[in-house]
Amino acid sequence: MKRFLLGAAVVLLIVFGVRYCENQQNEREQLAQNSQLIQEQIKNVGKLVVTEGNFSQVWSYKDSKKFYLDVFSARKKALIVVNAKVTVSYDLSELETEIDQENKRVIIKSIPKEELNIYPDIQYYDVTQDYLNQFEASDYNTIKKKVTASIKKKVEASSIKSNAQNRLISELSKIYILTNSMGWTLEYNDMPVNSQNDFNDIKL
Fold first, then answer.
1. pTM of the predicted model, to two decimals?
2. Residue 164, Cβ density class (10 Å: 0-12 exposed, 13-18 middle, ≥19 buried)
3. For 61, 63, 67, 174, which has the most beta carbons within 10 A of its beta carbon?
4. Cβ count within 10 A of residue 95
5. Range with the poorest average pLDDT among 18-22, 70-74, 144-148, 158-162
6. CA-CA distance, 24 to 31, in Å (whole number)?
7. For the chain, which residues make up each domain, given as ranges?
8. How many Å is the maximal CA-CA distance in the chain?
9. pLDDT, tens digit, for every residue of 41-60?
């Protein structure tokens, strides 16, 4: 009887041991699969997110030069019409992440900064210039710099940047949705992201 009980105990230990090893193996395989899915999602998110806008402006340019002890002056002026295409982009291929498979964590280590580009199309009308004060390359360069600075101020006062951030958050939320569905934790700045709304508090 004792031998029977001892044999039964050994068999049970072997069965439980095999099942434990199988469960451990299944968990490792599941972790590896989840990790791969997350890596694929991060790869899919890693694209260029671009928000475009168009800005227009009309202004006049005037310049004068004095000659002969300020007795004579030479003038030039033009009406300038500017139509500028503006893009605000985030290159999410530069998104830095770390996958902690053991603790089921995905850590966003760095979010790329926005990139602002202004492409002004400058048209000149009603151009008048005196012989001694004509338009030169330096004038056009100065005008372009002033135009770009002026458009940039308009961009800062518009909603294009916030729209771009909303698109960025939408892309990052895809990572949260996947990790959350798998029971993983998404972190940024040493803080867990507990909902999609938490991304709105991220300082970019």
1. 0.74
2. buried
3. 61
4. 20
5. 18-22
6. 10
7. 2-201
8. 129
9. 888 887 888 899 999 999 88
